[in-house]
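#struct-help
A.M.: can someone run this one for me? Single chain, 205 residues.
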Amino acid sequence: MEIRKVTDASFGVYGKVLEEYDFSGLLKEMEHTPCPMDEVIYVPSVEGLEALAVAKDLTESAYGGLPIQIGYCNGNNKKLNAVEYHRSSEVDIAVNDLILLIGRQQDIEADFTYDTSKIEAFYVPAGTAVELYATTLHYAPCSAGEDGFRCVVVLPKDTNLELNFTPGKDGEDKLITARNKWLIAHEDAKIEGAFNGLKGENITL
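D.P.: on it. Structure tokens below:
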């Protein structure tokens, strides 16, 4: 699979590189977060990250005043396993080099299946921040090296938290697995309760 850089023009379908923020404090604080080598962990909201000055800048500029949460996704991963999307952009900040496997929501079929051959890979170098548009399918980053990855994840407040309602079983509702989270899984990933709609190879880097 070809791995392009996020600076490549083809990334423009999925998002953009953010250069107008000072993420130095955020990157330094992330050095203290755990990075397991045998799994991927996701923490939606971390008070220490949200207390940094850049959180105000992201709230006002990246999200137009909406309340946000700043957390992280760390670990070691080589597989696609699933794709998800939100009704909002997601800002990802690579603490170390990582690879994003991404696709387009517009390519989801009428029966909510998705062909994994349409997934594209993009390399995000350490210190780089990207906005992934709401229509960009994504999931956990993939490791670019042997030391796993650390990735800051910024989203509107309460995204990915446990549902406080019971979603419907038909149509797009069957993809809702958490607040502001629609997910399509690959059967190989064995994600409990998820809709297994990924067709084709469970892409491995």
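A.M.: thanks! The first strand starts at residue 3 and ends at 5.
D.P.: also worth noting: DSSP finds three helices and 17 strands in the chain.
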